[in-house]
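User: Okay, second chain of the day. Same drill as before: sequence in, structure tokens out.
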Amino acid sequence: MFVDWEYAVRAWQTLPTGEDFDREAERVGPAFEAWKKANGQPDVATLSALTGKDADLVRQGYDLERVYWMWQEVYRNWGAGRGLVSPAEPWNQSTRCGLIEATNIFTGQCNDMPDWRTEKGRARDDKKMADFLAKQAKKAATN
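Assistant: Same drill. Structure tokens below.
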């Protein structure tokens, strides 16, 4: 799935914010996108054999794209688990970890995800948490 597993894990562990991810994507993305435009959708075997001045950037662009795809899957699982347990669980403070740990192929951990959410996604998550807490407070006040 990845050309360079160590790079993929390093991206997961050392790009904690969306801004960090975007900077890395700006570094590796142009070479990867140019290669795809010229050669079509790459595969691991083709990229492993690639040589030339931009070969590392192309491989890293491929891997970074796949790391992001995996992050999206973990993010969906965090949202699903959060809905089952408590919408008030903040980012990286999950208590329902089975699905997240199973999906997080980089570390197998539950609460070590980079926060690559967009501003819109973060606002949606925060609103869901605030709405849940407001409902809980209202419910407690009426009991």
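The mean pLDDT is 90.

User: Thanks, on to the next one.
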